[in-house]
Amino acid sequence: TLQDGEKIIIVDDVMTSGISVEERIEKLRKSADVQVEAVLVIINRGILAAEEVNGAKRLEEKYRAKVYSLITDKDIEMAVKKGIL
Question: Average pLDDT for residues 33-62, to the nearest whole number?
């Protein structure tokens, strides 16, 4: 059970816009006043369209939480160009 003042890390598989992570954070904050220290995602797909805000950037600005990703959209693009994927 979460307690007020606790620091947490959010872990997710894939992030693009960051909306689902943001919804999860807001739901958690309804149960306790927690501080999100970081968000860890396996794949960060970045920006889908030019008018969309990068999810990682939005989460970092809104929650002051660092976003870490194991694989980025640029990593995937490079792997495709090299024929790895």
Answer: 83
For Cα atoms 67, 65, 9, give the angle at the middle one, nearest 5 degrees: 80
Task: Evaluate whether 65 touches 37 at the Cβ level (below 8 Å).
Answer: yes
Cα dist. 69→1, 45, 47, 75 in Å?
A: 26, 10, 14, 11
Looking at residue 45, its pLDDT comes to: 84
Model pLDDT, residue 38: 97
| Residue 12 amino acid letter | D
Look at the pTM and tell me if it is higher than 0.85.
Answer: no
Assess whether pLDDT exceeds 90 at residue 48: no
To which residue do tokens 């307690």 refer?
3
40-79 as b/e, with b when 16 or more CB fall inside 10 Å? ebebbbbeeeeeeebbbebbbeebebebebeeebeebeee
